[in-house]
Amino acid sequence: MTISGKEYVIARRKKIERRQKIVTIISIVSFFGSIGFAAVSALKQAIYDPKPVTVSAESVLQKQARGFEFVLQREPENQVALEGLVMARLHLKDTQGAIPPLAKLVKLHPERQDYKIVLEQAKKQVGKGDR
Fold first, then answer.
1. Where are the domains of the chain?
2. What's the predicted TM-score (pTM) here?
3. What value does the mean pLDDT take over residues 46-65?
4. d(Cα 71, Cα 77) in Å, to the nearest integer?
5. Residue 43 has pLDDT above 90, yes or no
């Protein structure tokens, strides 16, 4: 019962192929198992610890207005911050609060007609509200 060289090589190849199949199957099972555990963990976290998704536009505008006010404390004549503050307050329907920065913009840039027009409209709107 001696094995020839060819039979030995064939038997050896079959052993190697069998080991490769086993390692491949174990790898595939491990891969999909880890994906499954990650998915279950993510679902569990989403169900038991939901994060708030909605943020009101009003709160965003208020934060922007505070940010512009902060910039204006350091740089009182910053045109971008003044314009941003005016826009934020107008969107928040705080026309009275938009008038002082608008007046400052008109004073700093008297050539800008759009500032003058918006300031006049804001004053008229505040005047109507007082009556």
1. 1-51, 57-130
2. 0.56
3. 78
4. 10
5. no
What percent helix, strand, coil does the chain show, rounded to 5? 80, 0, 20
> Exposure pattern of 112-131 as b/e (b: 16+ CB <10 Å)?
eeebeebbeebeeeeeeeee
- Judged against a pLDDT cut of 80, whether residue 110 lies above it is answered with yes
Vertex 93: Cα angle to 85 and 131 (nearest 5): 125
| CATH number of the 57-130 domain | 1.25.40.10
73, 75, 78, 82: CA torsion to nearest 10: 10
Which amino acid, residue 29? V
Q: Is 62 exposed, middle or buried (0-12, 13-18, 19+ CB in 10 A)?
A: middle
Lowest mean pLDDT among 41-45, 102-106, 109-113: 41-45
